[in-house]
Queue: 4 jobs
Job 1
Amino acid sequence: MIHCNILDVKKEKINISKAQKFIASSKCGASLFFMGTVRNENNNKKVTGITYDSHDGMVKKSFQEIYEEAKKKFKFETIVVFIEHAKGYVALGETSVLIAVACKHRKEVYEVSRFIIEEIKKRTPIWKKEHYEGKETEWLKGSPVVKQ
């Protein structure tokens, strides 16, 4: 089971309690929450925030494909996944991505969660423009989108 979405931060913020409710299951003995937040420095520049942009339909499709690949790769009895990513301006310290995973055992949730975030970073069409002190901004170089 999966929930995946892109949230326009002008309308809604990423909410961990929503993720917790979605992944709750008596079939799962372990759950793990990964939250990516905007940090204060990158490449020796003081970051004040990041603007995320995406092709929402392609992002949701990518999230779904990554989930399906995780199920095939790990063959765990139960995998429940919640993924939400922010779109728009995210200020310093705010959450840009939340991945919640529930499985039968703790080893499983660590493996699935790590697989999901690494695959998202490699191949999901989400672009970042960093905002720096002094009003300077820069679109960061990403990975080319390749079909696996």
Job 2
Amino acid sequence: MTVCIVGWAHSRFGKLEGQTLENLITGIAREALAHAGIGPDEVDEIVLGHFNAGFSPQDFTASLVLQADDRLRFKPATRVENACATGSAAVRQGIRAIDSGAAKIVLVVGAEQMTTTPALEIGKNLLKASYLPEDGDTPAGFAGVFGKIAQAYFQRHGDQSDALATIAAKNHKNGVGNPYAQLRKDLGFEFCRQESDKNPFVAGPLKRTDCSLVSDGAAALVLAEGEISSSMPRAIGFRANEHVQDFLPMSKRDILLFEGCGEAWRRALAKAGATLGDLSFVETHDCFTIAELIEYEAMGLARRGEGGKLALEGQTAMGGRLPVNPSGGLKSKGHPIGATGVSMHVLTAMQLMGEAGDIQVPRATLGGIFNMGGAAVANYVSILERLK
């Protein structure tokens, strides 16, 4: 059974003054249903992606979606969570509901409100996505975890500061054209490369421009089974949707390999009957620039230790061999945890419909998505194509 995306909605990401988590959820749900041309009565199931971990005092949030319209009352609604891959976990839950025959139309919502939380608490909340017995006292929180990963990568493969700055500059340049992005400013290579008062070191070799943003935001999808989607105005099909979970402690694996990411890509490409060369673009999880670099290698785009070379040669830039993060990625777009994976699917669907505006990849036919929770612990890959 083919599951298709038949409608979507996306809020602006950033510090959204005057918004509440409830407003974000209900507003984006209404917009997605309207875009799909689906009435609330036609929805069989609701899935909400919401990480929270302390960001919101309201921790029981699945039923907030019902407040988008009274006609959603009594629909099954479930909140799912899988760290920074929470949004993709929600998408997968919706796909599985349709694949099982339990639903024909599923509303998937991802949302997070982070900016109302004090800075020190933000760090503590995000660190909960690491293995606390080993990493719970890491200075600089989750940035500190990836700072250690970057330092270890530098020790094994040499200084990659130029490559990381190139990745940051690429994503910020791409984000200028994304109307949903939190930071729409082309910072340039030199600013990203040099330490300064505005770009200090945060953890290990990672500077501020190497770290994704603290954000509020929401995104939503309407999923439908094949027969229904064939009669809809648009249908973006899942050629593949794979989930691979790895060990939480970094001590139990070679953290520089991102093996869960690699396995998820191998399974997804095999399921899709495709190769990396068939993809028009990829939206990947650049929570930190070192993550994007290692993901190049894990997905098979570059050999181990050569991901930086790929970036420096412009192979992942717009117009390159395989554009990566044409949206600007988490680096520019922002990273409201529960919304991120859903956002990736929305923006990929827009690309495939030719509706991505200033960030459009020309002649895009097949889009890849990688969304990661923790340090390559929760790994989700989707491969999407336009069916109509």
Job 3
Amino acid sequence: MGKALIIGCGGVAGVAAHKCVENSGVFEEICIASRTVEKCDALKSKLDGKSSSKISTAKVDANNVVELIYLIEKFKPDIVMNLALPYHDLKIMEACLQTRTNYLDTANYESEDSAKFEYKQQWAYDEKFKKAGITGILGCGFDPGVSGIFVAYALKHHFDKITTIDILDCNGGDHGYPFATNFNPEINIREITAKGSYFENGKTIETEPMEIKKSYDFPEVGKREMYLLHHEEIESLAKNIPGVKRIRFFMTFGKSYLTHLKCLENVGMTSIKPIDFQGQKIVPLQFLKAVLPDPATLGSRTVGKTNIGCVISGVKDGREKNYYIYNVCDHRECFKEVGSQAVAYTTGVPAMIGAALSIENKWDLKGVRNVEEFNPDPFIDALNKFGLPVSEDFSPVPVD
């Protein structure tokens, strides 16, 4: 039925490629492209023969618009799946605009020079995408991504009005290392060490990093400590969910992780400011990334489960109501299926689903859109079909 160009060849791209091949009725052809074509070739060798999908590979610099345009015009995909680093979002969007090709990513744009992320620069492409007759799907991983779908689904089926949203991201997995990150270390650490924020009564309220801590008893994982962070779907949900009063995002961390992170921060290893070292400029955080375990290698040693979802409150038929919608994902089962740990799996599967819905014209709104603006029902159906089953609790304990 369609063709997808996957840019990037890390853990998330590997999962997405596996799932595109599984969904061969939609993805007749995929091309996997990155700066290191050898990684793409290795992934292709794992996927060849698993279905009728035709797989090719290519070398491309995701930061080079001319190279991107050349590849897009050569392969002629129905959609470009940007599964590279968020530093590249604007360059890939520009290439999609110039070639009139649909676009999808899993995280909003970040500048390498500033640990701040917001949708402003991507939303600025909205009118240009509309005039070009193409769709840009922003944040189609799990959070952002499924978290927004969960909210849209709740509003469509269970609420007349949503007043509060708490997005809860719990990784109960154990990889055995004293310190490692479950997705790109540079992006992960920048996110955690930045100031937190939440939306309340029309305003964004900023907090110190990790200032607000709560505990929650997660189904199939247990009670965990979680910390309030800034996260991009707070911004988009505040824009797209009418009348919402408060939106917060929490993520769990273990003591060992936080202790090591604090030590690294204290000695300057989490800094993104270049320093002179033996006649060269290096960025401490990029060096730290180079010596930490590659998240793509953690799958074989990670045990336990993730639980990611939304605790939502609001009004239905004049009565106040609480609702919890979530997914539980098992690290070991993910590794058995696609050779990945659950954090990459829970991002790669939704990326495939969003791309499939675009190719099938089930998601066909033009312009630059966040996932909660689309019909959530086919996405929820696909989550249940492709390995991320949805659970619901109609009398949950709210986050205090």
Job 4
Amino acid sequence: MYKSQKIIGLSLAVGFMLIGCGQTGDPEIIMPDTPMQPSAAINGGVEVEAAATGEAQTEPAAQAAGSGEAHTVYLITMDLADSYWQSIDQGCRQAAEELGNITYRWIGPDTHDDALQSACIDQAVSEGADAILIAANSAEGVNGSLQAAAEAGCKIIYVDSAASFDCVTALATDNEAAGGTAAESMKTALAEKGITSGTIGVMGVTQDTASCVARENGFRAAFEGTDFVLADTVYMMDDASNIRNAVTAGQGQGYVAYFGTNEGTSVAIGEAVKESGRDDLVVGFDTSDAMLALIADGTAYATMQQNPERMGHDGMVIAVQAMEGTYTDTNTKTDTGVTVITADSM
């Protein structure tokens, strides 16, 4: 179970919060495989705030279930750049339209930073959020703000990446298992090329991004007992040049393959390999247009496709259920799964 943490204080001023938050727009697995539906029908529109401009738009909502009570729900991601987060946002919007009577807003910091993401949580609370869907930047770094949010009555739902603070539910990829799947894909490709040993480069986001660290752990575990050596992880730290420089250095040392733990690192690896004109093996994560283009042209061998839209959609539905008292479990978890995407499967 996730452990409640003692509050560490709220010392960030509102002005800092607004600057820090860029704007756009093991418990048992007991959650269902299909999206959950609340219990009663309502009609109405959904106010979906375009947070980048401060404007709001009213979109038609399908007949959906709920009590008819209006709710305010915020999505807070690690940053606002990756298309992966945009997919979670799309899932949230779809569910909000279906449910009706939802004021929904997506915010997040401009860079991976616990203090900035905490400021976003504080902002959501100050603006009247009833529930927060969050992809936590780290396991511990935002717990103080999450506890303050819970004390203010907010329901906490994790999407993609959980902190260690108690929640209603967490919807995410089983990241360690997914890292193992990525490793098995790479082993297959290496065997096809007749490569039985050598050094593999591993690229991550930050040392504190729990989801990516779990993927790396699963990947490394799958190579234990083989003749391959996995290099120390190089972290992007919001600067793609760190990855590109590491790939260049790895090529100079004869690395046989590269693994990226998320969309940003995977694309940076692929672009570096492509620019070099070499035929290095690349396996990564996520399915942005840029990553799929690298798969299609043969630069990257495989990528792990997650289900971010489902995370957003089902997270929104369960948030409303929790607010209305029809979902009463806590600290539940579901693996939303991965699919291996190669050029042959596209």
